[in-house]
Amino acid sequence: MKFILLFLVISTNAQAAKDRLSILLNLIDEEEKTIGMVKRKGPGLKYRLFELKSERIKIWQKKENEAYMNKSTKGIKVSRKQAFKTTRALYRKAMNYGLKIVKQHSKSNIVPSVYYTLGLNSRDYSQDKKEYIFLQKAIKYSTANSSINYFARTSLAEYYYNNKKYKRAVKLYKRIIRNSDDEWYTKNLYNYGWCLLKTHRFTKATETLEKAYQLSGTGKYINFQDQIMVGLTSFYVLGKQIPRGKKFILEHAHNKYEALFKFTKKVAGKGYYQESLDLIKIIPDYFTDKKDKVQLADLALFEFDFFKQFNQNDKMFSVAKRLNTIALNEEQRDDAIHKISTEVGDQQQILKKSFDKHGNTYQISLLKTVNKYFDILGNIDIKNKSKYLYYKAESHYSVHEFAAALPLYKSSLEYFIKKPAELNITKKSMEGIFSCIEFSKLSKKNELIELEYAYQKHIELWPRSKKSQKIYPKLFSLYLSKDDLKKTQKTLDRFIASFPKGIKKQKELFTVQLDKIIKVKDSNLLADKITLLSTGYLNFSAKMVKKTEKILATMLFNEYQTFNSKGESKLALNGYKKIFYTKKYPKSIKADAAFNMGIIYVDLFQTKNAIKWFEKGLPLFSPKELSKRRNYLDKISLRASLLQDLLNAAQLKKLVLRRFCSKTPKKNHETLNQAVQFDLANDYTAKALHTYNTYKKCTNQDITSLKETIMDHLYVYNHERLLLNFIDDEKLSKNFKKKIGQFYEALYWKYRTKSKSLTAQYVYRIKELKCISCKSFIKANKGHKRFTAEIKRFKAKYIRLSTPFNPERFNAKLNNRLTSIKPLLDKGEKILELGHPEYSILVFEKMIEIIELSSKEIKDLDPTIKDLNFKKQFKEQMSMVARNISGQKQSIKKRVDSLIQKNRLFTHEQHKTHYAHEILQISDIRNPASTMASTMDLQE
Amino acid sequence: MKAIILIILSLSFASCALKKGPRTLSENAYDGLRFESLNRYDFNRLDQSKYAQKGIALCHKKQYNEAYKIFKTQLDNQKENPVYWNHLATCFLLEKKYPKAKFYYDLALSVAPKKSKIKSVIMNNLGLYYLNMNRPYLAQESFNNAIKGNKKYKTPKYNLAQVYLKFSQFNSAQKILTNLYKSSPKDIDFIYSLGHLNLMQGKYAKANKYFSLIPKKYMQRDDIATNYALSLYFSGQSNKAYKIVKNAHMDNSHYLFAQTELIKKIERTK
User: Fold this and answer.
1) Are B171 and B190 in contact (CB under 8 A)?
2) Cβ of A923 and B261 within 8 Å?
3) Cβ–Cβ below 8 Å for B158 and A926
4) Contact assessment for residue A338 and residue A346, using Cβ atoms and an 8 Å cutoff
5) What is the pLDDT of residues A146-162, one digit of tens each?
6) Any CB–CB contact under 8 A between B15 and chain A?
7) pLDDT tens digits, residue range A595-630?
């Protein structure tokens, strides 16, 4: 809003000026029109028209001048002729009109005025050099005492003065200054004074100006005192009237300090050393405001020049020092800086020129002075202090004082970094630093310190410059030589940030650094680097990362492996544990540490701990490593099994299954088999079954044979309940019908005489199984049952003797009884035809039983017969019959023997049919074969 | 109650005196299997043998833990050796850790070369394992395989004969035992087995003939004394039977009942 207002004001002011000029021109036009309406114009009106034309020139000159200035400020070049075209045209028109009036009214009293105006017009609006002629004519045609005459003369005197026609001017002014009534009298005196001076009439000139000065201050005339005093100071010096000047100034000068200071400058300018010095001394007495330091500073600045002018170097330097203590305003500061800079620049050149390269000599004092000047400059111009420090360094460098130059270059650089200035000296300072390091002949240690500084600063200031690209590796190497691995990394990081495409070199450096870390065996640092690498640092390959991890692992594990191999497993375990719980180590190392602990615990037979650590370690491995570890665990497990530690072996297998359950279903098949078999080898059936049930899902292979193994084991080692459950749960009857049939049958025989419920259970299972041998068994079983029942019924139908004994009835009973034996035995024979070996033996046993039963029954018959002889005969006959019946036993035994031997039948059911039945009745003295059999163990 | 305690005490003292087992033989001469098996070596023979410090010998001395330690130390050098695994498995067999025994026999078989003698050895021992597991058919098969593998080995033949004896395969047993007897006529168990074979067939005279060949020293062995006494008893030589049974060690429960019954029977007839 303010801007708009300002714009309006500006535009309004400009517009107002234009409008004013337009109004004036309009007024002139209006007046011209009004006068123009007068048909017969007299000289007065014509002169008025001439004046209006002159006035129009003036206005147009103003307008055109304004336009010209505008264009000039905008940089548009326009010739003056072109720029003031209208002014010139109007001038010519006015001049012609004026000359026409003079011509038309030559005897009129307006003629001098017209000539005077023509003269002034020529002076002001043209360069046609007609001013002199017109002014001459104005004087000529005017009366001597007329004002036109006085003005024309004064203008002519000025014309002479301006055109350096001083003698003519003096002549005219002599007459002019007679008129002391003119308010411009002081100006005329001033001009007159100058004309006198130019004509070498110094005393008269001085007096005239002194008079003009004094009159100027009276108020009667226009005040020219300042201008006059300037002139006077020159007049005193030119006229060698320095004491007079001093006196006049001290007595009459309106501003004594100013006049005196200007005067002193003039005096000094003309080479008056002592006089100047005297004046300088008194100037402070005339300071208008003693608190204000401006005048003091102005004087000092003057003094600096003054002493320089007179080659008073010491005094000049003192003034410079003084300047350093005075508060300078901006202008003065600039002046002081310029003066001192110029001086010290000159002195630098001298110093440089004075340096003898061969003798290495120079003006030491000069160097000191130069240094001090730069110090002063640095103080006065503090924002550019870096520049002056640099110049100091350059001064030293120019005389080969490299060691001294080096810290100065550094200071200049540091100062610039802290307070940047207009002149950027960083590059030059840096060049100086490198150059000084090269030429300073520093000790190796110091050289490294300086180089470190230089490299650091360079990459700090121009991190992406071409030179920096070469410096990063150098700085890196420098730190590497100092074993400062923190800084090597920092340098490398900067290098990477500045040159993302320089990866090849950066990788090279990083590798060198890794080598160093490995050499110094700094496992902590190496771990840090691995963490870095694992973030994708410098795009190192996974292989490289792995390799480094292996090195770290070797570094870390070496000590603990030594402990372990020396049998100090506790120390080894502690070491590995420490590694495992150290945050910074990579996963793979922790994994290895845990795994190694696991191995140690396996060796210590502390499987629980081993498993715990394997469990901790395994999730930390990469899939590839995990696969390797699996193989290793398999090997450990195998070794444990070979070392008779089947429990641990199984545990380890289970660990593998747990960890790899869904990953390697094919491989898991063998692992599952082994895990189960290891537990079975310990007869840990519950564990084996748990393993089987838990991990059978981990394989996609056929596990039928494993099921068979478990089933066999449960059978062989009499885990009957588990066996039956397993068969049922796993529905094994389908695949192993025959085998299971054999198992059931064997179990049936085991319990046949001991448990009715169990035998019934197995008969039921055999029946359900429906295997070929099962069917035979069931038939034989049923047949045997029926046969047993028949025998029971047969037993019940024994011969019951009547009382009194009736031989005929007895014979019928006996005959009936004896004939009933054969059909019964035939029933047994039918069962034998089924060919079931065990039941065949049982049937034979039953047949023997029938024979023995019948034989005994008949033998034991004891009828109530009073006739003892008859009774005896009866008994003998019955015994004979009994023997006949019993005689069949032997043939049955032979048949059994033949059956057993022919069929290689290993039965426990042979009793009565055995040849040694009598002995076996006392006790079964047949040794179990296992107690009689011998091992074989004497083979090498 | 007192009687029972006395019997238990007498049994325990007797077993201490026996050193190792009831079927050990103190002289090599009576051991027809001495080049194949340490089974019937008594402690003296074991200690004097060149195998004394070996794991297997320690197992026969029932020093199982010591034996297993030795086996462990030998593992790295021996793990491909079937003999090593056979010995280890046999130790477990002797210790009656049958599942482990089977595990290591299987391992032994897996490292044994095909058609090697050691394979026969392992098969023999596997047969023993099966006998302990009451799998006589599998035992028979193993012994047969052992014999097939090396016909010179006597042990599997002897073992097979024991299976046949137990299960009344008299002809087969007869054939094997006769051959063994011919090869080692002094072997106590060969003679005893032949005696037992005949006894079981009711051939008492033949049985007596064989039992009488057994040196007096071994006549007290419960199996021998019981079998011989029964044979004598059933052949009508009660007095001799009584003497023999009375002199028996009577420390084997398997025979104790038969022995006491026989004594009662004889005493009743007196």
Assistant:
1) no
2) yes
3) no
4) no
5) 889 999 999 999 999 98
6) no
7) 999 989 888 878 789 889 999 999 898 888 888 888
Q: Tens of pLDDT along A463-474?
A: 999 999 999 999
pLDDT reported for residue A14: 59
Q: Are A254 and A225 in contact (CB under 8 A)?
A: yes
Q: Do B36 and A680 touch (CB under 8 A)?
A: no
Radius of gyration of chain A (CA): 71
**DSSP type of residue B218:** H
CB A302 within 8 A of CB A269: no
Chain A contacts of B68, Cβ < 8 Å? 644
C-alpha pair distances (Å), A550 with each of A131, A806, B113: 108, 112, 41
Between CA B95 and CA A83 the distance in angstroms is 136
Q: What span, in angstroms and rounded, lies between the C-alpha atoms of A48 and A35?
A: 9
Distances (CA, A) of A924 to A679, B230, B258: 37, 12, 8
pLDDT of residue A605: 76
Instruction: Give per-residue pLDDT as tens, A456-502.
Output: 999 999 999 999 999 999 999 999 999 999 999 999 999 999 999 98
Measure in Å the smallest separation between the Cα of B227 and chain A Cα atoms.
7
Question: How far apart are alpha carbons A817 and A829 in whole angstroms?
Answer: 19
Distance separating the N- and C-terminal Cα atoms of chain A: 118
Cα nearest neighbour of B199 on chain A = A916
Region A16-27 average pLDDT = 81
Mean pLDDT of A206-228: 91
Q: Among candidates A334, A268, A273, which has minimal Cα distance to A298?
A: A334
- Could you give the ipTM of this predicted complex? 0.91
Instruction: Give the gap in angstroms from C-alpha B6 to the nearest C-alpha of chain A.
Output: 23
Distance of CA A161 to the CA centre of its chain: 82
Residue whose C-alpha is closest to residue A310's, from A268, A373, A251, A347: A268
Alpha carbon distance A828, A786 (integer Å): 10
pLDDT band at A522 (very low <50, low <70, confident <90, very high): confident
Nearest CA-CA partner of A479 in A500, A498, A463, A494? A494
Residues of B in contact with A679 (CB under 8 A): none
Tokens of A342: 């110029």
Structure tokens given for A104: 């038309």
Gap from B24 CA to chain A (nearest CA, Å): 11
Please determine, for residue A396, whether its predicted confidence score (pLDDT) is greater than 50: yes
Residues of chain B contacting A923 with CB distance shorter than 8 Å: 255, 257-258, 261
Measured distance CA(A238)–CA(A266) in Å, rounded: 9
Helix crossing, A503-520 with A542-565: angle to 10°?
Answer: 0
Which of A154, A53, A127, A157 lies closest to A96 in space, CA to CA?
A: A53
Which pair of tokens denotes residue A23? 């109004």
Beta bridge partners of A356: A361
Radius of gyration of chain B measured on its C-alpha atoms = 20
Tokens of A924: 């079964």
> Taking the CB of residue B268, how many other CB atoms lie within 10 A of it?
7
In which band, very low, low, confident or very high, does the pLDDT at A562 lie, cut at 50, 70 and 90?
Answer: confident
Instruction: Write out chain A residues lying below 8 Å of B137, CB-based.
Output: 906
Contact A319, A373 (CB under 8 A): no
- Which residue's structure tokens are 């002289």? B27
Report the mean per-residue pLDDT for chain A.
Answer: 90
Residue carrying the six token digits 């046969």: A787
pLDDT tops 70 at residue A326: yes
* DSSP string covering A761-793: HHHHHHHHH--HHHHHHHHHHHHHHHHHHHHHH
CA distances to A28, A222, A416 from A23, in Å: 8, 32, 61
Helix A256-269 with A242-252: angle, nearest 10 deg: 170
Integer Cα distance of A462 and A499 in angstroms = 12
